[in-house]
Amino acid sequence: MKIIPGKFPEEKDIEKYISFVSDESRNCSLVFLRRLAAFARDNGHKMTGIIGRRSSIKQQQLWDADLKKNKGRPSEKVARPFTSWHEFGCAVDLDGDY
To answer: Which residues have a Cβ under 8 Å from the Cβ of 95 and sit 6 or more positions away?
Structure first.
């Protein structure tokens, strides 16, 4: 799902609507996080267990594990390294209702 600019007025109190699994995963684009928090706010939810930014090394590890799990074929659930929006701080993995 993409956050459409202007559709959700930015929420400045990010922590009220989003909680991360680690400090590393919170290093996302501030504008992106404010829009994501606004989406949660406007839909009456708190997003928990968020994994956001990750290094290209971590993305490579996830890619390799996905290939291994699927006998060398990508599942299409994990982006190729250097193409994931996670590496740029503009994507999150969600749990729960999302």
So the answer is: 48, 49
Report the amino acid identity of residue 31.
V
Q: What range does the domain containing 38 cover?
A: 15-88
pLDDT digits (tens, 9 = 90+) for 11-41: 999 999 998 888 877 788 888 899 889 989 9
CA distance 97 to 11: 20
Spell out a b/e string for 51-67, using b for 16 or more CB atoms within 10 Å of the CB, else e: bbbbeeebbeebbeebe
Is 79 within the bounds of a domain? yes
Q: Give this prediction's pTM.
A: 0.74
| Cα Dmax for the chain | 44
Q: Are 81 and 59 in contact (CB under 8 A)?
A: yes
- Whether residue 9 is contained in a domain is answered as no
Cα–chain-centroid distance for residue 38?
15
